[in-house]
């Protein structure tokens, strides 16, 4: 399944956000892959962030990462940099952007 998400980085923290993503912990990327993600791309337009991820089951991904210490540490770090954060709770499973059009 493909999931599109929207988050927003704080305008004064863009450089830190991008620097952090050059150093995503291998333990976290391994956990993301183990939870079924085959790709995850983030685009930035100004402070707006658009994510596209492909995974087998988005709800499973959220459940597997929600209480994982490396993800908790990463989300804590991201919360300092973002105005709109990624929701790893069960309710976050419905946070994907709705499809308007496809070719």
Structure, described:
- There is one protein chain.
- By secondary structure, the chain is an alpha+beta fold.
- Helices cover 38% and strands 27% of the residues.
- It contains four helices and four strands, in the order βααββααβ.
- The protein has helices at 14-21, 26-34, 58-66, 69-81; strands at residues 2-9, 37-45, 48-55, 82-84.
- The protein has a four-stranded antiparallel β-sheet.
- Strand 2 (37-45) and strand 3 (48-55) form a beta hairpin.
- The longest helix has 13 residues, at 69-81.
- The protein is globular, with a radius of gyration of 13 Å.
Please outline the helices and strands.
Elements: E1 2-9, H1 14-21, H2 26-34, E2 37-45, E3 48-55, H3 58-66, H4 69-81, E4 82-84
Antiparallel strand pairs: 1-3, 1-4, 2-3
Overall residue-averaged pLDDT value: 92
Strand % is 25-35%
Identify low-pLDDT runs: none
Shape: globular
DSSP helix fraction: 25-40%
The biggest sheet, with number of strands, parallel, antiparallel or mixed sense and barrel status, is: 4 strands, antiparallel
How large, in whole angstroms, is the Cα Rg?
A: 13 Å
Secondary-structure-based class equals alpha+beta
Order of SSEs, N→C? EHHEEHHE
* SS elements, strand count: 4
Distance N to C terminus:
16 Å
DSSP helical segment count: 4
Main sheet: strand order:
2-3-1-4
